[in-house]
Amino acid sequence: MIRTPLRPLARILRARERGENPDAIERENKRMRHEEMRDRARLQAESRLILLAVAFLGGFLLIGGRMAYIATTDPVEPRAAASGSPIIGQRADILDRNGRILATNLDTYALYAQPQQMIDPEAAATRLAEIFPELDAERLRTDFTGTRKFVWVRRQISPEQLQAVHDIGEPGLLFGPREARLYPNGPIAAQVLGGATYGREGVDSAEVIGVAGVERQFDAYLRDPANQGAPLTLSLDLTVQATAEEVLAGGMMLMNAKAASAVLLDVHTGEVIAMVSLPDFDPNTRPALSPETSPDDNPLFNRAVQGVYELGSTFKVFAVSQALELGLVNADTMIDTRGPLTWGRFRIRDFHNYGAQLSVTDVVVKSSNIGTARIALQIGADRQREFLDSLGLLQPTSIELSEARSGRPLFPAQWSEISTMTIGYGHGVSDSPLHLAAAYASIVNGGTLVTPTLIRQDRAQTGPRIISEATSRIMRSMLREVVQHGTATFGDVEGYDVGGKTGTADKPNPQGGYYDDKVIATFASFFPASDPRYVLVVSLDEPVETSGSEPRRTAGWTAVPVAAEMIRRIAPILGMRPQIETAEADGVTLTSN
Length: 593
Fold this sequence. Notes:
By secondary structure, the protein is an alpha+beta fold. The chain has helices at residues 9-18, 22-71, 121-131, 137-145, 159-168, 190-193, 213-217, 219-223, 238-254, 316-326, 360-366, 369-379, 381-390, 417-424, 433-444, 469-485, 559-573; strands spanning 94-95, 101-113, 151-157, 173-182, 195-201, 206-212, 232-233, 259-266, 272-278, 309-310, 334-336, 341-343, 346-348, 357-359, 430-431, 499-508, 514-527, 534-541. The strands form six sheets. Strands 1, 2, 3, 4 and 7 form a five-stranded mixed beta sheet that branches. It has a five-stranded antiparallel beta sheet with strand order 9-8-18-17-16, sandwiched between helices. It has a two-stranded antiparallel sheet with strand order 5-6.
């Protein structure tokens, strides 16, 4: 910019020629310059003010528009924009059939340390070892005084422990929020629920993943945010489950058994109302699995599903029902029971000498091995195998448990005639108590296949027909006779007409052969016999009843009394009223007006 001089020479000279004061020219030029500078500064200031006003107006309009948009939209949980998959912390509850909580979540904290922020790491290590006795104080000192910048101390702490750590006053000890899995009923239904642990972990969150049981089977469902926290409802009844566990634990102790299991099944829906395996554990403090521990001694082992055993005479029901269905025999057909029955080097004997003949009904009631073997021979190997397979006894159950696949039945690769005979009375095929319960339900419910399930059902199953209703009715009558007059008389429960079949099988020796003094005792029962609603299978491992002069191991003395007490306790809980027979009034005439 060209600036005008304050004292232009030409004007100064002209002013002197006219006798004017040259200083007036300088003052006028200064005034004009200042006015020009003032106008320029004012214009600049006004421009800035206008620009600022426009900016503020735009900001207000933007904020106002955003607020109006938010006010007219539905509320949505904000999601943090972060790279990678977020850790899902929430896990749905598990409920019993009546809505009572079996597994839920508890807000808690994890404890971690940032050693570089610690004031007195050695003192902190000592105090932490006092609060958490399982921690090694020397190891903590090494971690806190070394080069590590982050140390997990405890993945989960109680409120009392949190306060105790707070009282240490160490700024390098920090807490991260956690969602812990809680099983408020302790060991009740432990093997069914399984348990959970932490998967991916961060400072501010951790995912809870199932490790066994339904927690593992339904892990994806329980963690899926799309379900909006909808609980998983099981078929179990918490009260019935607790009662069954209490009775079975008492029976296991009285009968000096090593282990025990029980399954209560609805014969129409296939729902498992109770499933017990003893010994059990508390899923809140799930024990570690030791590879050296045998299944017999492992509380994590679900004997009702994973344990496959020869179930003895309980299998006679299948041979007789198939023979009835095929028209080979009827309830009164006489069967040759002279023994021993010889087949090559094998000898088949009965527990007692039942004479030369028994009716088919008495073969079941008295539990004749010889009679059942002869009936099985009439059926033949191919038809027998096909029938057992149709009942689901030759394949793992489809129950919704991650362990179900390991409960694979054992049966001979070559189904010979001797196999046909021994399998007829329950030796040569190994199944789980759940297999047996489902098969019995299919026999007594009218003859349609039942598939066991742990998920609550709203209607009865419509499985394929296995036997006719007529055959099913005959079998119910025979099995009622077993309890009234046969090997299971201790199973008769007043007010509930119980039917069932005992089974006592020698326990296999891992070294080969069978033990002479160890058995698996099983009672497969149903009630009421006139119109079955439930099947109950109770199995005891190595029971010994010692009230008499000699030890007794058969199911009639061991498993049957335990099952009877269980039915006596759980039937009222299931809403079943006892059937009381009214006495006839002698000499009384009823009249009506």
